[in-house]
Design a protein that fits this description.
Distance between the termini: 53 Å
Mean pLDDT: 81
Strand content: over 45%
Radius of gyration: 25 Å
Structural class: mainly beta
Low-confidence stretches: 1-13, 146-154
């Protein structure tokens, strides 16, 4: 059994990995088969899971599941006087318990196995993320900065995030209490097919006032698209016909994001770099 407020992975359902999190009072527990949901262009993985409840604790109250996508562009401790640095982009709520007939649908394989194991107090929920919903993205602050986006200091990276929340309440509009609610961070990711494309290539040359000849540098990558965790191979050719000496070569990977809120701003950040003598 996972400790209260902690996320645990269990392989008790054969080889199926299940994410589990209980509310602080232990009265409701949420189970998910994954936390990353892929957008394939034509369809998006559904968000399906199960909530295990304590009926004696609920009495006449209900259990709801909610998904919220939001863009945060400022520190949470600056959210005062009704001014927040967070913009909600997409949100939807379903009633999990008691079950509502219009929400009924065939159980997924994960839900069938979970409900068989957990018993009669387990109830399924199911969400379909809209096709136009944004994907999860993090704007990484530079190492030497706390990070700035639209001139607002950040205590942590900002960007688009998704949260799945299950909670107890009399209505779906009721504010969730921390003691009887579960919050899970999930991600909507975009599938990028590995397609053949021309190798990215760039060339630059420089003249020197007190020296004849030019310094020319050409850089190319082995491919256009990289996945998380992959090494980026850079092929660099330097043609030095000047009288200057090349002492160091500095290579950096820069994340560039265009942010449109009240006006358009471009945010650039070095996310990886190396230097060679």
């Amino acid at each position: 059994m996972a400790a209260e407020g902690e996320l645990a992975a269990t392989s008790s359902l054969s080889t199926t990995r299940v994410f589990k999190k209980a509310s602080p009072n232990g009265k409701i527990t949420t189970y998910l088969g994954r936390r990353d949901f892929i957008d394939y262009g034509s369809n998006i993985d559904p968000v399906d899971g199960v909530v295990l409840i304590d009926p004696e604790y609920l009495k006449d109250r209900k259990v709801y599941a909610n998904i919220l996508a939001a863009f945060r562009y400022g520190r949470e401790d600056l959210d005062v006087l009704g001014l927040t640095f967070r913009k909600d982009l997409f949100g939807t709520t379903v009633q999990v318990y008691p079950p509502v007939s219009e929400n009924e649908r065939p159980l997924t394989q994960l839900q069938t196995r979970l409900m068989k194991k957990l018993g009669s107090n387990a109830y399924p929920f199911y969400f379909e993320i809209p096709q136009d919903a944004p994907s999860s993205v993090t704007l990484q602050p530079a190492p030497e900065e706390t990070g700035k986006v639209t001139h607002v200091l950040l205590s942590k990276p900002c960007g688009v995030d998704y949260e799945l929340k299950t909670y107890v309440g009399d209505t779906d509009q009721e504010k969730a209490h921390k003691r009887n609610s579960v919050r899970l961070a999930i991600r909507k990711l975009t599938y990028a097919a590995d397609e053949s494309a021309p190798q990215p290539r760039a060339e630059v040359s420089k003249d020197f006032v007190m020296s004849s000849g030019k310094l020319r540098a050409e850089a190319s990558l082995d491919k256009e698209k990289y996945y998380h965790g992959e090494n980026i191979s850079v092929n660099l050719t330097i043609d030095n016909n000047s009288g200057k000496k090349v002492r160091k070569v500095h290579i950096s990977v820069i994340q560039v994001s265009d942010i449109i809120l009240f006006n358009k701003a471009s945010y650039k950040c070095v996310v990886a770099e190396m230097e060679s003598e």
